[in-house]
Amino acid sequence: MTTLSQAACAVLSAAEPAEKCRLTRIFAADWREGRITEVGDTLPPARPARPLRPQLLPPKEMPRRSYGGDRGRIGLIHALAHIELNAIDLGWDIIARFTHESLPRDFASDWVWVALDEVEHFEMLERLLASLGAAYGDLPAHDGLWQAAEKTADDILARLVVVPMTLEARGVDTTPPTMDKLAKNGDALTPPALDVIYHDEIRHVAAGVRWFTFVAERRGLDPRAAYLQYMARHYPAGLKPPFNHEGRAQAAFPRDWYEEMARR
Ligand SMILES: [Fe+2]
Ligand SMILES: [Fe+2]
Question: Between 141 and which of 4, 82, 242, 264 could a Cys-Cys bridge form, CB atoms 3.0 to 4.6 Å apart?
């Protein structure tokens, strides 16, 4: 690979999760150690390649998850693994899709490290599935995350608002209560993995807020007003509280931005 956007396209074009993970590790090391130095301008595919399994369903057609017992745990972990696999692709996609913005190198570096985190998350969840006698691909999964990516492919501010600042921030809100619930049900293995994910996701939200602010200011916009405008367009019904104010504060997400979007 000669440029980072070409590397991104190679990950996005790899169908098998193990290959996405392997390539992400190689390209992240190439970037860190200076074997890849240019971002380039190779455009990513509209949709990343995906394995034959899991079957992808529209969110509304997803079977209801049963909670409790090994079946419930497998369902939860499988759904999270699917999110993490999408997140690997989203990390690479944002690097290659918006090169025309000519952002500082730190922008690319931030999302390379995000993609690498997502690889760790995916593999951790795969190991948990294996310990339960299951594997990624065993259950259907929904395509909502990539639909969000497609809807925000034409504007980096929309992408940042929807992916890190809403979807990943929602993960920061919901992960601690999920960990509590699992621990109360006697699950000793899943909560520690979710704790690692939780702390990493705070950094991903922080990167989203930081780059959103950077790009908005560069366009001469007031970042808070711009955030509220994009949110009104993409989430007309608002956000569902409760929020994890502590986690969001660690990500430097201003409370007077997202609280304004709370559903009343
Ligand atoms: Fe993640
Ligand atoms: Fe993430």
Answer: 82
